[in-house]
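Our platform keeps sequence and structure together, in a single record for each protein. This encoding replaces a full spatial description with a residue-level series of whole-number codes. We quote a single record here, exactly as it is kept in our systems:
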Amino acid sequence: MVAQPRPAPDQEITAQAQFFAREGYVLAPGLFTPGEVQEVREIFAQVHAEGVPGHYEPRQVADGVQNPDDPLYQYPRVMMPHRFNARARHFLLLPRVADRLRAFFGTEPVAAQSMYYFKPPGARGQALHQDQFYLLVEPGSCVAAWTAIDDTDVENGALLVVPKTNDADIVCPAVADARESYTSHFVPVPEGLKAQVVPMKAGDTLFFNGSLIHGSGPNRSKTRFRRSFICHYAAGDVRKISGGYRPLIRMDGTEYEVESQQSGGPCGEGWKGALH
């Protein structure tokens, strides 16, 4: 069988932007090269071995309960690595990512957050939620770029998305099942819609709108990690964002300040400035 030619980059991005606008998410296969995937693994293996005070999430699980037997105690998230690691900053501002964000936002994007999840074997997932609940971007919403650093599937806790919730209101969350989720927030699936699994290969990037309901199940594999590099962005005309995400970074690497969000969003002042 003759292989079908891959669309030109501008055609590919246009098609992805159309799908993103319609469904609230889109998969960009192989956006990170195998060499880049390996470099990201090595960067965060070193961070895990050495720790970085102030940026490496405390060794605790949901609700502040310390449990050395929990896989997430042993492999906590790395928060805002772009603030202390030049290569993490490079991947946050990767031109291939920026090109797609420009198409999704319709304007120049700015970067707000980076994170790295190890999700080792046996780790709990994260209950369905909406990113805009935490970032409180104004005007508009945020967009996530979620890059798989391992192949993901149902067994090791692949992402779940609820298509067409990109225009949904921000929902004040219910309480999640602590046996399945390491976070306590849960947003139910709207009536008539269904959550669907998005299997990914290492190097694939899933982009999704800040209102899109998404999450993941536990890693039920005995041997496989489900590592991921996750970044959040806003449109360049952003005026306010939750305080923990400042300063923002333009895609040329320059930093600038915007106003800290003073509203707690639809759920009240108790949520103001939360870090996701």
